[in-house]
Design brief:
Belongs to the short-chain dehydrogenases/reductases (SDR) family. The chain has helices at 13-24, 36-50, 66-74, 99-127, 148-168, 187-191, 203-214, 225-233, 239-250; strands spanning 4-8, 28-33, 54-58, 81-84, 130-135, 173-179, 183-184, 201-202, 220-222. With 251 residues, it is an alpha/beta fold. β5, α5 and β6 (173-179) form a beta-alpha-beta unit. The structure holds NADP nicotinamide-adenine-dinucleotide phosphate (NAP).
Length: 251
Amino acid sequence: MVSTTLITGASSGIGEELASRFAQRGEDLVLVARRRDRLDALADRIGDEFGVDVEVIDMDLADVHAARELRDRVGSRRIDTVINNAGFGLSGDVADLDPEDLDAMVKVNCLALTGITSRFLGDMVARNHGTIVNIASTAAYQPVPHMAVYAASKAFVLSLTEALWAETAEHGVRVLAACPGPTETEFFEHAGRKAAVGRMRSAGQVADALMEALDGRSPSFVDGWLNRLIAKGSSFLPKAWVLKIAAAAVN
Ligand SMILES: NC(=O)c1ccc[n+]([C@@H]2O[C@H](COP(=O)([O-])OP(=O)(O)OC[C@H]3O[C@@H](n4cnc5c(N)ncnc54)[C@H](OP(=O)(O)O)[C@@H]3O)[C@@H](O)[C@H]2O)c1
């Protein structure tokens, strides 16, 4: 039986690259995002190139009922892998940003991700088979002043996903949190160029590293050796230093 992978945020960047990687493996796809035209074009391209079946679902994951609606729209179709990749960041101080925009960010990055995970995980546990990948960030490893809500949302994703790894380890379900660092995508059109700190990786490099990490057993991975050094190294420094360095980097 052909496996099916559901990817949110597949209309650009890391999600688009991941769609190609899974199609290359011969897996059918369910692609989710708001921009239907981009999803349709991607579905046509990878459907032709790899001969896989690609279903497109356009929806706004900032809607509080998005996860339930997505589960309903997928229906009885068996989903082997869920990749919660959709997400966005905003830079600026919490006091200055539009509270509605911050709400939307938490809804997409945390609420929808949790709702989608919980709605597909039960079937996977029951089947003793399945994979959940949640895209966190190196921003999960320390608070980031001027991107405070984004970094906090990714700390939520990392913590949730690592705990799920342990909850499901004996049920044949592979759970992985992926933590990219700065990656050249449309992300910075929303987050602002100031958020582009350090050396950029490409979305293709992140997708390749993720596919490799999936074959391992670790609950999470940081993409790129320099990102790994910075993310893990921050835990050895006094918190006040880490906050000052992070604040200076984004400001
Ligand atoms: N780029 C980086 O430096 C970086 C670093 C660490 C982590 N990440 C994480 O990587 C993931 C992918 O981001 P990316 O870098 O590939 O950026 P991207 O090119 O901007 O892709 C973001 C994807 O999320 C989707 N999305 C955003 N808001 C949505 C909503 N309300 N409803 C449905 N879909 C929505 C977008 O689709 P539509 O606009 O069509 O809806 C798009 O497909 C995100 O979770 C991001 O936080 C990125």
